[in-house]
Amino acid sequence: MKITMIGGGYVGLVSSACLAAFGATVTLVEKDPQRLDALQRGEIPIYEPGLDALLCEQRAVGRLVLCSSIAQGLKEAEAVFIAVGTPARRGSGHADLSYVYAVAREIAEAAPHNLLIVTKSTVPVGTGREVSRIVNSLRPDLHFSVASNPEFLREGQAIADFMNPDRVIIGLDQKSDDKGTRARELLTTLYHPLNHPETRLVFMGLESAELTKYAANAFLAMKVTFANEMADLCEATGADSDEVRHAIGLDPRIGPDFLIPGPGFGGSCFPKDTQALAVTARKAGAPSPLVETTIASNEARKRRMAERILTLLGDLTHPRTVAILGLTFKANTDDMRQAPSLTVLPLLYEAGLTLRVYDPHGMEQARALLPDGIYFARNALDAAQGTDLLVILTEWEEFLHITPSELQKSMKGRLIVDYRGLWKNREFASCGLVYHRIGKKDQTKKEGT
Ligand SMILES: NC(=O)c1ccc[n+]([C@@H]2O[C@H](COP(=O)([O-])OP(=O)(O)OC[C@H]3O[C@@H](n4cnc5c(N)ncnc54)[C@H](O)[C@@H]3O)[C@@H](O)[C@H]2O)c1
Questions:
Q1: pLDDT single digits (tens) 322-379
Q2: Separation between Cα atoms, residue 54 and residue 56, nearest integer Å
């Protein structure tokens, strides 16, 4: 089967490589010339474990080709996937659909024959129908159908997620003449390696598929936020958040995932998708106070992460230096979109602290987004050098190799603030270090205070 993927970002690259591995012949269209040149040279513009090898392999066997023009990409395609960005519109929280609609217009202008147009980007309810309206208005002669196939991959484990998904959601245009039959056939063929009892292809209406993606992300964002709030409550009451988390996660109605407390969710999906869902819900006359509170609680949490550090440092009339380990929104990605570091670091910097930071893969992206004057260290111990306090903001595995005695030798002060619980099993006290983490009662306070 021949398909075209439009957009060479996380989703477009991973989907292209994996669908090629499933046996499809994929043309990937990327309009950013620098990104395309890099891809042509075999350089992957994002950090995603395993992606470079898979793309290279699929290009070598000729199942994946790259180009810059939608017209060229569509020449022999039976289906075209729209995988461009849908960022939050500044100020309003609406999903910015300008890239999606621009692609719809280009497809209409260039499509040579009968075509299935599939939206893979995360788009609000009604977008598939609007894509259909745009194409139809520009090309009334063209036979085409639309479908929705939202993507659920997680950055950092995107290949595994795509290859072994819990489910593949496929929204069909049940109001069309063929009631979505052709789209169903084509997508069943495309996803044939996954069509076994453990991985269900879940067919539904267009609108349901579009909303499913937002509902899933909003639910997970709420779960993370709830876990964070419960961890704060544990701290305040002397309960142990590990014990509480483990115990509630044993209930199959709750489950253990997404209960680890942290500095607040970030990334390219949860923040913008919760905002877009809240806007959609209000517009539809069915507002979601739960989702709106989740957004507000998460934003406040990121600010509180900075305030905690300032409180721990105490007297700020003397110059203070803080090390930050981890800048990306989570480990195993170089994605800085909506990362907690983008809230925490500017607040610390404005408070007059000297900052020394390190991230295994996010330094380049972070440099462009953080205040000038922050020192970007060569490695974690270089970041720790001479600091009063050290913070773990992202749970990179490489930080597990750092020992308390190395920290004690590098740092000037004694305070370790671990916002990911990465070092929770370390013994810091014998090195004279004071370890703080979310969900544990403040170790500097005496019982009863
Ligand atoms: N990143 C994730 O983990 C993830 C997971 C699931 C779903 N999604 C959704 O998938 C969509 C894409 O996300 P992403 O992170 O891959 O976006 P991205 O911004 O990283 O990549 C989009 C790419 O599309 C290209 N592009 C834009 N317009 C184009 C055009 N007209 N022709 C060709 N290329 C064009 C851009 O240059 C860019 O390289 C979004 O809606 C997002 O919400 C993302």
A1: 999 999 999 999 999 999 999 999 999 999 999 999 999 999 999 999 999 999 999 9
A2: 5
pTM: 0.94
Best mutation site among 36, 117, 118, 151 for ligand 1 pocket (most ligand atoms within 8 Å of CB): 151
49, 160 contact by CB (below 8 A): no
Q: Are 199 and 164 in contact (CB under 8 A)?
A: yes
Judge whether 368 and 389 are in contact, CB under 8 Å: no
Residues 233/239, Cβ–Cβ less than 8 Å: yes
348, 312 Cβ separation under 8 angstroms:
no
What is the C-alpha to C-alpha distance for residues 197 and 260, in angstroms, rounded to an integer?
31
Residue 445 burial (10 A CB sphere; 0-12, 13-18, 19+): exposed
For ligand 1, atom 18: residue with the closest CA: 9
3-class SS at 299?
A: helix
Exposed/middle/buried for residue 50 (C-beta within 10 Å: 0-12, 13-18, 19+): middle
Atom 26 in ligand 1: residue holding the nearest Cα: 7
Sign of CA dihedral 104, 105, 108, 109: negative
Rg (the chain; Cα; Å): 24
**Residue 76: Cβ within 10 Å count:** 12
Task: Measure the CA–CA gap between 106 and 444, rounded to whole angstroms.
Answer: 61
CA of 48 from ligand 1 middle (Å) equals 15
Of 184, 110, 109, which Cα lies nearest the Cα of 146? 184
Cα 257 from Cα 406, distance rounded (Å): 32
**Known catalytic residue at 269:** yes
Ligand 1 atom at minimal distance to the Cα of residue 35:
39
Q: How far is the CA of 152 from the centre of ligand 1 (A)?
A: 13
Smallest CA-to-CA distance from 152 within 325, 251, 44, 269 is with 269
Cβ atoms of 118 and 209 within 8 Å: the answer is: no
* Pocket around ligand 1 at a 6 A CB cut-off: 6-12, 29-32, 35, 83-86, 99, 102-103, 121-122, 151, 153, 155, 268-269
414 residue type, one letter: R
Index of the ligand 1 atom closest to the CA of residue 68:
33
Pocket test for ligand 1, best of 4, 5, 6, 11 (most atoms within 8 A of CB): 11
Residue 243 pLDDT > 50, yes or no? yes
* Per-residue confidence (pLDDT) for residue 442, from 0 to 100: 62
